[in-house]
């Protein structure tokens, strides 16, 4: 016998699990977006991995699994639902990849970021906001796109590495917040990654 969605007042059939509840497509989509927004907002906090990393990883794994199940169901989603499910899958996959790459720490290190695009080269001085062994997050005044390859130079010691833009997020200030992932396994930050956590503790909430 079909099970109805557990959302209050909803009479639609449940097709997925979210928060240990059986929900319909509509409530799965809205609930998944709500959780993804929460993870995306908090993942930059240095304490996120130790306090919420395991729970967030389980949610993202379940989210990706449930999206696949819905897409392969006997009654396929319509075009709008399919587009939203694909967006959820891509966002969950991106966040999952960031979680699996290890913890981030807050640290402000001066860098020069350079695009050597033949059509529109540019360079910009900036400071890191959050960094990890595999990359860093910073704010940029130039236009960025996922997949762009940038040259990164530390202004304190001259170390250089190429990095790929993993994600971008537009800010109200007009700047772009971006996450860069190093292309090679070079130890770009050295000891800063291991010492930054105590120096830049998580903000109290």
Structure description:
The protein has helices spanning 25-42, 48-71, 79-100, 192-199, and strands at residues 16-18, 21-23, 105-106, 110-115, 122-132, 135-140, 149-154, 160-170, 176-182. The chain is α+β, with helices and mostly antiparallel strands and 205 residues long. The strands form two sheets. A six-stranded antiparallel beta barrel has the order 4-5-6-9-8-7. The chain has a two-stranded antiparallel ribbon with strand order 1-2. It has two domains: 16-100; 105-199, Thrombin, subunit H (Beta Barrel), CATH 2.40.10.220. It is elongated and about 65 Å long. Mean pLDDT is 84; it is low at 194-205.
Topology:
Layout: E1 16-18, E2 21-23, H1 25-42, H2 48-71, H3 79-100, E3 105-106, E4 110-115, E5 122-132, E6 135-140, E7 149-154, E8 160-170, E9 176-182, H4 192-199
Helix pairs in contact: 1-2, 1-3, 2-3
**What proportion strand?**
25-35%
- What is the H level of CATH, i.e. the homologous superfamily of the largest domain? predicted glycosyltransferase like domains
Q: Which structural category do the helix and sheet elements fall into?
A: alpha+beta
The total tally of domains equals: 2
Query: Which H/E pattern describes the elements?
Result: EEHHHEEEEEEEH
Oligomeric composition of the shown chains: single chain
Q: How much helicity do the residues have?
A: 25-40%
At CATH level 2, the architecture of the largest domain is Beta Barrel
Shape: elongated
Q: Which fold name fills CATH's third level, the topology of the largest domain?
A: Thrombin, subunit H
Mean pLDDT: 84
Q: Count the strands? A: 9
Low-pLDDT stretches are 194-205
Roughly how many Å is the radius of gyration?
Answer: 20 Å
CATH class annotation of the largest domain? Mainly Beta
The main β sheet shows up as: 6 strands, antiparallel, barrel
Order of strands, main sheet, comes to 4-5-6-9-8-7
Span between termini: 45 Å
């Amino acid at each position: 016998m079909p099970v109805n969605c557990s959302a209050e007042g909803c009479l639609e059939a449940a097709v997925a699990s979210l928060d240990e509840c059986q929900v319909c497509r509509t409530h799965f989509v809205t609930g998944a977006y709500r959780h993804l927004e929460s993870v995306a907002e908090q993942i930059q906090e240095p304490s996120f991995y130790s306090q919420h990393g395991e729970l967030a990883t389980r949610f993202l794994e379940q989210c990706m699994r449930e999206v696949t199940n819905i897409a392969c169901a006997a009654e396929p989603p319509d075009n709008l639902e399919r587009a939203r499910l694909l967006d959820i899958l891509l966002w969950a996959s991106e966040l999952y990849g960031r979680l699996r790459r290890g913890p981030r720490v807050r640290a402000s290190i001066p860098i020069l970021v350079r695009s050597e695009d033949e059509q529109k080269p540019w360079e910009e001085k900036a400071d890191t906001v959050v960094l990890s062994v595999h990359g860093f997050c910073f704010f940029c005044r130039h236009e960025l796109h996922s997949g762009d390859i940038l040259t990164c130079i530390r202004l304190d010691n001259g170390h250089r590495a190429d990095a790929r833009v993993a994600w971008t997020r537009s800010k109200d200030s007009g700047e772009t917040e971006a996450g860069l992932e190093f292309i090679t396994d070079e130890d770009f930050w050295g000891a800063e990654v291991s010492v930054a956590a105590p120096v830049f503790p998580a903000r109290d909430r």
